[in-house]
Every structure is written in C-alpha cells, then in structure tokens.
Design a protein that fits this description.
The protein has 372 residues and is of the alpha+beta class. It has eight helices and 14 strands.
Length: 372
C-alpha cells in the first residue's frame, strides 16, 4: 500500500498520481533482477523529457549531503547548469555497466545528440546485504532496457528497479515517489520526487511526527544479527549505513541555481522521517526543471549566419518567491520515503539474509494511539 492508505494526514496537495511523473514529460522505467538466492538488484531510469526528449537540456542542479556515494556527470551539471540525459540509478558496483549502457542507448537512438561526447548521469546505493554485489548481474543492456521501459503514469514502488535489494530504517526499502502542486499566481506547477531509499537506523524512524522506530526496535535482535554477520566472516553493517538518492523534478521555470536550491532542501524532507545522516550513507540529490525548452544548449558552434551569434533566454520564478517550491520538495521527499516503506515487501537474499517489511498493522496502531 501507499502511506496515505494508513490514514496518515500529510500536508500539501499531491498531483493526480502523487508521483514524479505528475511533472509533464517525466517518465520512469525499471529493470528488476531477482534470480536464485543471491541476485536482488536492478536498474531505474528517470527520463526528464521522456525518450523523445533525450538530448533536450533541462535546467539542473545537484547537492551532496554526505559524499559516501557516487553520481557521475555532476561536474558537467555544475559547469553548464543543464541536464540532457536519462538519470540512471542502480547498485554501487553496477555504475560502470550502467554508464556504458546509457552511452550505447543514446548512440542507437539519438544519433543527432552531441555524438562527439556524452556524460551520463548514473548514481547508486549499496545492496550488498541482500545482493551478490560483486557479481555481474547488471550489464549495459539492463540500463538500456530500463530507459526503453520508461513510461508516464502511476509508478510502481518498493522492491523494484535499482531499489530491489535496498533497506530503509532497518526494514525493506527501495523505490518510492510523491508529488505536490504549487500555485503560482494564475499558474499551477508540480514538484515531484523519486527516492531510492537505503538509509536510516530503525530506532530513528518517524512517520507523520510519530517516533514509531523506537517501538519497533529490538536491541536483542540487532545484536543477534551483528553476531551472525561476524560468525559468517562478514563485518556487520552499522545501523543507518547505506545511501539515499533523490531526484526532484518540476515544470516550474527555474534557473540552474534555483534547481540546486531545491536539491539542498531534500535533507529537510529526509529528516522528517527521522534520519540524522550516517557517515556511511551516500546522500546525493539532483533537481531539474523541464521549463525553458530550447535553452542551455551546449552543442558545437556552427558558422554564424547573417544575423550573427545567437542568444538564449531563460524565464524563471523570482528568488523571493521560491519558498512554496521549497516546501513542496520537503513534503514530497518525506512522503516518497514513507511510500518506499509501506510499498516494499519482505525479502530474503544472499547467504539467507532476510529483511522484514515494515509491520503495517503495528504502525497503524502506533499512529492511531498518538491521535487519540
């Protein structure tokens, strides 16, 4: 289920699908790999302008809250303020194959797009508890297949795509999304967030202001898990370790610096769910605007015509009116994380490691008790 089905009163107006795909043009695709006892992984593709819009720049900015992770292509985003490629999310050791897969897909499908060079945006979280991360389950073809699978409409959540083998707050984690509508004068814009959640200690979990993680934490069980890992010759993973990737999209006209400002607000939404930001978690965020189509191009210059060198223009929301968009980011990120937890199912994977699902009945009781 989604978190709103628990009866939680969340602030803000969601879009029709309450998903990042409420932003017109945005598409999401998955490849989910569950094989045998040890493969629990996959690939997610977020296409800012859909497949037909690959190569058309979006205003973009990124932010690293904690750099124990990877997002390729960020140096160019910082330099140019633009994003023109699919955003691909997978596991830590699959960044290389996915990177190559994006290049091959673009060469096959977008021959006119800067054929001289390409800087894919591929990012990751660590699924080595459930998945044989040292294996070669993810190949370039899976990244291409995720791009080909991308569609608009409702987005599947939980144990799918790059989120297949992830954990969140000690429970099964994965993929989740949410959106908010922002009224700006006579216009209505959408801010959407997509989260690959693999972070947080169980004791930290907060849902709608209720510290449910404290009631759901079993110190003896955590100690037994740690002892079992040592017995198997593995180092126990510290509570809160993992990573979280968040992609924020909007159709509001924004400057690259304003997109970066949206990305900087993501940690506030994560904090509403309880995390304090583990050193062992790579928390990296990207935000883009699909407005101003045709601007921020970076192609090789052609010979100037009679009119001389061209110019480009950007229409944008004044900085002093950005607060409602910041609020929408915080609210949609919070709900996207909760949708991960309520949408994911329990999973057993590598070496018999088991991650339980969030106990929804018990959570419902804890939330109901707080409202009495």
């Amino acid at each position: 289920m989604r978190v709103r089905e628990l009866g939680i009163d969340l602030t803000g107006e969601p879009g029709p699908w309450n998903a990042i795909t409420d932003v017109p043009g945005v598409e999401v695709g998955y490849v989910t790999l569950v094989e045998g006892d040890g493969i629990r992984t996959g690939v997610t593709a977020v296409l800012p302008r859909g497949r037909d819009g690959v190569g058309v720049p979006c205003s973009a900015g990124w932010h690293s809250f904690n750099g124990n992770g990877e997002m390729t292509g960020t140096a160019w985003i910082e330099e140019s303020g633009s994003l023109a490629v699919p955003v691909v999310i997978t596991n830590t050791y699959a960044v290389g194959p996915a990177h190559r897969g994006v290049i091959e897909w673009v060469r096959a499908n977008c021959r006119g797009m800067a054929p001289e060079w390409l800087l894919p945006v591929v990012t990751e979280t660590w699924d080595g508890h459930l998945n044989d991360i040292h294996g070669a389950a993810v190949g370039p073809g899976h990244a291409a297949a995720a791009i080909d699978a991308a569609v608009t409409g409702p987005v599947e959540e939980g144990c799918v795509g790059g989120g297949t083998g992830m954990r969140c707050y000690g429970f099964k984690g994965g993929s989740g999304t949410a959106s908010r509508v922002v009224e700006y004068g006579a216009d209505r814009y959408t801010v959407g967030a997509f989260v690959q959640a693999n972070f947080g200690a169980r004791r930290e979990l907060v849902m709608a202001g209720v510290p449910v993680g404290r009631a759901l934490t079993d110190p003896a069980g955590e100690a037994a898990d740690a002892a079992g890992a040592v017995a198997d010759g593995e180092r126990p993973v510290p509570p809160g370790a993992g990573s979280v990737i968040v992609v924020v999209a909007t159709d509001a006209p924004l400057l690259p610096g304003q997109c970066k400002a949206l990305a900087r607000r993501v940690p506030l939404g994560l904090a509403r769910t309880g995390t304090t930001g583990s050193h062992f978690s790579g928390d990296i965020f990207l935000a883009f605007s699909t407005a101003n189509r045709g601007a921020l191009t970076s192609t090789f210059p052609e010979a100037d015509g009679p009119a001389g060198a061209p110019y480009e223009s950007l229409r944008f929301v004044p900085w002093g009116r950005m607060d409602p968009f910041y609020e929408a980011v915080v609210e949609s990120v919070e709900e996207a994380v909760l949708n991960v937890l309520t949408g994911a199912r329990a999973m057993t994977g590598r070496n018999g490691h088991h991650v339980p699902a969030l106990p929804l009945d018990r959570v419902g009781e804890l939330l109901a008790a707080r409202t009495r």
